[in-house]
Design brief:
eight-stranded mixed beta sheet, two-stranded antiparallel sheet, 3 domains, D-Maltodextrin-Binding Protein, domain 2, single chain, Arc Repressor Mutant, subunit A, alpha/beta, 10 helices, 41% helix, 295 residues
Length: 295
């Protein structure tokens, strides 16, 4: 059907060289060597049976036949490029991507980064909600969920995003009173109420015994960070969640007591052999921004 169709690489090399009037500039544009452009143009000239360029010392110009051919080739490549772009974007148009994410990830970490995703996929409508419940994709119409757990969740396709790096933090004023790790027992322990044993797991990991009965419980990491910054006590909070507070000095890490909690973060999707383009697009982006935190 296409008996006279030249190699695509040769057409791309010719179009670039003809448009830029330079094999050198064409090689830089296409990320190949000068010799590769020259070779591809030569292949095309042999294919059509005539010279397309007049090669002069330090200059290049098209033959009359090359001028006419360039107009047609450039138009054809632009048509293919536009058709491909339309095809790639079309499946994302007028579609909704329903995402349910942990409050701790959403409030101060994911939402400030979502504009980047929206800029990359402007035709995709994102419906973002928060939750910390077990996800049943059969009844809840989510495309993606992000959860934390101490073991791999069941009943869904699962991808591990990262382990949880917890930091011992407090206000700058309170850090002056923490002369040693054991001084923790003189402070109020701010507890995450859905993780009641976390302080004891941390203490065992760093090698101290907790004796204080001064405790204050809150339900979310956001509330925990606010309480710690207000000087109410010391807290264990994921590093990703308090990047801004650490940078601004609202919270400080009084001791270098690194601790990886028993919890990890997982991305969940409905059990299916194939992911839709909108879901795969979000996963690729999420893995990209999670990369600095992955072990």
């Amino acid at each position: 059907m296409y008996a006279h169709l030249p190699p695509l690489n040769s057409l791309r090399a010719f179009e670039s060289a003809a448009r830029l009037m330079s094999f050198t500039l064409a090689s830089k544009e296409l990320f190949v060597t000068h010799g590769a452009i020259s070779k591809q143009v030569k292949i095309l000239e042999e294919y059509v049976g005539m010279p397309l360029f007049i090669r002069q010392h330090r200059s290049l110009r098209l033959t009359d036949e090359g001028e006419m051919y360039f107009v047609s080739v450039q138009s054809a490549l632009q048509t293919i490029n536009s058709a491909s772009a339309d095809l790639m974007i079309q499946p994302l148009q007028a579609q909704t991507l329903a995402i349910n994410v942990l409050p701790s990830l959403t409030i101060s970490w994911l939402i400030p980064r979502m504009e980047q995703f929206k800029s990359r996929f402007p035709h995709l409508y994102v419906d973002l909600s928060i939750g910390d419940f077990e996800v049943d994709f059969a009844s809840a119409k989510y495309d993606i969920a992000v959860r934390s757990a101490t073991s791999t969740p069941k009943g869904a396709n699962v991808m591990k995003l990262m382990d949880e790096d917890l930091c011992l933090v407090c206000s700058p004023e309170m850090s002056l009173q923490l002369t040693s790790l054991e001084a923790i027992n003189q402070m109020t322990l701010l507890k995450h109420t859905t993780r009641p044993d976390l302080w004891h797991v941390w203490a065992e990991d760093v090698g101290i015994k907790l004796t204080t009965e001064n405790k204050f419980g809150v339900e979310h990491f956001y509330m925990l960070s606010q309480a710690a910054a207000s000087g109410m006590g010391v807290a264990l909070i994921p590093r990703f969640f308090i990047e801004h507070e650490l940078a601004s000095g609202k919270l400080v890490i009084p001791f270098d007591a690194k601790f990886t909690s028993p919890y990890s973060y997982y991305l969940l999707t409905p059990k299916s052999s194939n992911l839709s383009l909108k879901v795969q697009s979000f996963i690729d982006w999420l893995l990209e921004i999670f990369q600095p935190y992955r072990n």
